[in-house]
Amino acid sequence: MPVLTPEIPVIDLVHPLPGFPDHRRFALVQLDDDGILCQLRSLDDPSLRFLVVPPVAFFPDYAPEVDDDVVDDLQITAGDDVIVLLVLNAGDSLGSTTANLLAPVVVNTATRRASQVILDDPDLPIAAPLLA
C-alpha cells in the first residue's frame, strides 16, 4: 500500500488548536509503514500529541469543503498540495476509536501551514466510529 501521508518535519498552525493556544508548531510523524496512523507532535511540548489519520483509509467518501478564508490562510494554490487529517479519540481498541469528521486538520504540504477547520455541515459527527 502506498504511503498516504508524507512525514513533515514542521507544521505551523495558522490558528492554534482549540484548548492549546500556545502550541502552533507540530511535526507530522508516521506511526506505521503505510502512512495511515500518524501523530501530530508539538515541538514546544513533546508530551502533547494527537493521533490523526487520512480520511481515505476509513471514510473513503469523506470530501470536506473549506471556505475561501481557509484557502487564503493556508496559502493553498493547488489541490495536490493539500492533505486532510482526522483527529482520533483513541478507545480501548480500534473498534471503540472515533474520528472527528466535523473538524479536520487541513495541511498545505507546500507551505507547511495548517489549521483545524470547523466545517459548516451539522450532519458531520465529532465522534464517528472508525469501524462500521
UniProtKB/TrEMBL annotation:
Signal peptide (residue range): none
Pfam families named in the record: FliW
A GO term from the CC aspect: cytoplasm
SUPFAM superfamilies: BH3618-like
Subcellular location: Cytoplasm
Keyword Glycoprotein appears in the UniProt entry: no
GO BP of this protein: bacterial-type flagellum assembly; regulation of translation
Alphabetical keyword list: Bacterial flagellum biogenesis, Cell projection, Chaperone, Cilium, Cytoplasm, Flagellum, Translation regulation
Task performed by this protein: Acts as an anti-CsrA protein, binds CsrA and prevents it from repressing translation of its target genes, one of which is flagellin. Binds to flagellin and participates in the assembly of the flagellum.
Record note on quaternary structure: Interacts with translational regulator CsrA and flagellin(s).
PANTHER family: FLAGELLAR ASSEMBLY FACTOR FLIW
Family membership: Belongs to the FliW family.
Protein name as catalogued: Flagellar assembly factor FliW
